[in-house]
Amino acid sequence: MKAAALPGALAARQPAPPAAGNNAPVKRRLPRVEAASIILPLLAGVGVLLFWTALSQTVSPDLPSPLRTWQESKRYVLNPFFKEGEMSQGIGRLAFYSLMRVMKGYSLALLFGTPLGFLIGLSKFASRALDPLIQVLRPISPLAWLPLGLVIFQRSEPAALFTIALCAMWPTVLNTAVGVRSISSDYLNVGRVLNLPRSKMFFSIILPATLPYVFTGYRLSLGIAWLVIVASEMLTGAPGVGGFLWQEYNALVYSHIILSILTIGFVGFLLDRLMGTIEARFKST
Amino acid sequence: MNTPLLELSQLGKTYETPQGPAVIVRDVNLRVEEGEFVCLIGHSGCGKSTVLSIVMGLIEPSAGSAILGNREIDGPGTNRGVVFQSPSLFPWLSVVQNIQLAVDQVKPNLSAAERLACAKETLALVGLADEADCRPAELSAGMRQRAGIARALAVDPKILLLDEPFSLLDALTRMELQDELLRIWERHRKTVLMVTHDVDEALLLADRIVMMTNGPAATIGKIMTVPFARPRVRAELADNPEYYRARDSLIAFLEGQGTALPKED
């Protein structure tokens, strides 16, 4: 469950150690390794561009080539925050709308998920009652929750937040519960022999001991929240990257679909990096 | 005869299992006098830690009674200072904050500054004055266990309970900490009940050595009064022919218990 991070992101963070050569001094080898970690992804990127170009020239004439995509999108990228109306806004502004919506839904997920995780971790009773339910709710796609949200709330915005919160909270719930359960019994015994009152036991021992797990949950939850936002915007037509993607598909501006996809990937990557940094800070203490 | 500080009478612990009751220890009778240093020794899994856990208040006995200072033990409490096998310091707190957690618990009426001073004083006692603001991860294993001892002393307990406190340390550090514990004990003469499986450790530290028979259904086999005068010095003990006689007798008892496969505690 914890290893569900982007493998690409992990690999990029830890460049391969230089091969141990006995006669070559380490100093000369290091720059070569760093160059490889830049050149190799560049080569892979060029490969994808070539494949994409070939695809657009041959089997799929509707697919805009990389060059055309750039020409039709550069206005949105070079001036990312312009606004000419509801239908025409810079990609940065659209991403900002999506991020704001994600943050609201994500906050709800943490607000409900964290206490639920502690409850399940601390109480055998709650764990027995809720574990099977969670196993059933967890694999439900956001596309299935959204219509239910619309039925319940009658409006698209709260329905989107409901969907994000409901889909994104599970990693937080499960990691928190696992964290509580894996607290060393030595730590708990120290608290017991000191006769710590229940509240102090929780805030001085259980909470800090669980925090690294909680933040792993928070990072995974944010990844899911960002996945869900696109689906929910596509269905509700709310302004944002996902809404823009669907609108441009309907307007037959296919290059903007690719622009949206790249933006979604890039923002998701940044979010994961951000949370990874915060998480590492909590793990080191 | 005056009343002992700690009195275990007919103490036993039995767990109900699907295969029927499993008797861990039975009929443990032991009186520990004020200021006495008593070591419990035996093979791994013989239930010596179970006896100690009952005194800690972490396990309820299923038979007999454990009386500490005229009161039946009915749960953990700060009149006992506990050192576990692993130092179990909280890594998110500094060393002094770890000690302060214990001080806060027993001296809630003092101001924060006084409690901090008290924690620092206890750290100085175990030679960690300069490491007060370090994180536990920055300390060596020996230093961490010193801090563990400081945390146990910080509650100013009637009795110190040590559960194989040096068994995870390397030989040199272990000797260093044994000497340190001896030095601290000579100064305060606090009552100590310590579980160990190290014969030399028991001979160096204890007034009496309680030998446990092998489990299941372990009990006290023999009690040896250690004849060496205090204060003790490791090097002098090594020159004493009596030391080897005592050592041989302890080992003979433990070997007489057979070399049955040790079970986990």
Descriptive labels:
heterodimer; A: 285 residues; mainly alpha; MetI-like fold; two-stranded antiparallel ribbon; 2 strands; 2% strand; globular; disordered N terminus; B: 265 residues; alpha/beta; six-stranded mixed sheet; 10 strands
SSE blueprint:
The complex is a heterodimer of chains A (285) and B (265).
Chain A (H helix, E strand, L loop, with lengths): L6 H7 L12 H32 L8 H13 L4 E3 L2 E2 L1 H32 L1 H14 L4 H12 L2 H26 L3 H9 L4 H39 L4 H10 L3 H31 L1
Antiparallel strand pairs in A: 1-2
Chain B lengths: L5 E12 L2 E13 L4 E5 L6 H9 L6 E6 L2 E2 L7 E4 L11 H12 L5 H14 L15 H14 L4 E5 L7 H18 L2 E6 L2 H7 L2 E5 L7 E6 L8 H6 L1 H16 L9
Parallel strand pairs in B: 3-8, 3-9, 6-7, 7-8
Antiparallel strand pairs in B: 1-2, 1-4, 4-5, 9-10
Task: Report what the structure shows.
The complex is a heterodimer of chains A (285) and B (265). Chain A is 79% helix and 2% strand. Chain A has 285 residues and is mainly alpha-helical. Chain A has a domain at 90-284: MetI-like (MetI-like fold). Chain A has a two-stranded antiparallel sheet with strand order 1-2. In chain A, helix 6 crosses helix 7. The longest helix of chain A is centred in the last third of the chain and has 39 residues, at 198-236. Chain B is of the alpha/beta class and 265 residues long. Helices cover 36% and strands 24% of the residues of chain B. A six-stranded mixed β-sheet of chain B has the order 6-7-8-3-9-10, with helices on both faces. The longest helix of chain B has 18 residues, at 171-188. The A-B interface holds A 184, 186-187, 189-190, 192-196, 204-205, 208-209, 211, 285 and B 56-58, 75-78, 80, 82, 84, 86, 88, 90-92, 101-102, 105, 135, 151, 155.
